[in-house]
Design a protein that fits this description.
alpha+beta; four-stranded antiparallel sheet; Alpha-Beta Plaits; about 90 residues
């Protein structure tokens, strides 16, 4: 399943977020494949597309950052997937 992972952070957390990202690369744990990641220019937010069959692995990834970031995570379908839902 593909998930959209969107995050925001407060301006006062910017330096800590950047430091952790530089240190870890923000890579997902085993069991989650990051398909792409984008950062809002001049904004304290970003979005990622990730694929996993293990939502607990995705939750662990979010948990690693939850002291600094707020998340909105939801499943997503591509064109072919959504077409199957249309009668």
């Amino acid at each position: 399943m593909i998930y959209v992972v969107a995050w925001t952070f407060k301006p006062e957390h910017r330096d800590a977020v950047q430091a952790r990202f530089k240190q870890t690369g923000g890579l997902p744990p085993e069991g989650v494949r990051m398909l792409g990641r984008w950062f809002g220019i001049g904004r304290n937010q970003g979005v990622c597309a990730a694929e996993t069959d293990d939502p607990l692995a995705l939750a662990r990834w979010a948990q690693q950052w939850s002291d600094l970031l707020s998340f909105d995570i939801y499943p997503a379908l591509n064109d072919e997937g959504i077409a199957q839902t249309i009668p």
